[in-house]
Amino acid sequence: MSVFAKAKASRSKSLKSVLGGIAMVGVGALVLAGCTPTENPDGPSGPTEQLTLKIGTLLPQTGSLSFLGPPEEAGVALAAKEINEANLGITVEITYGDSGDPDNKAYATAVPTLLSAGVSAIIGAAASGVSKLVIDQITGAGVIQISPANTSPDFTTWDDGGLYWRTAPSDLLQGEVLGNLVAEEGASSLGMIVINDAYGTGLEKVTAETFENAGGTVVATEYFNDGDTNFSAQISTVLAQDPDAIALITFDQAYTILPALKDQGYDMSKVYLVDGNTKQFGADLPAGTVEGATGMAPGPSLADDFQDRLNDAWQTELDGAEPLSDFLYAAESYDAVMLLALAALAAGSTDGADIAAKLQEVSGGGDDPGEKATDFASAAQIILDGGKVDYDGYSGGIKFDDAGDPTDATIGIFKYGADNMHTRTN
Question: N or C end of the chain: which has fewer CB within 10 A?
Answer without folding.
Answer: N
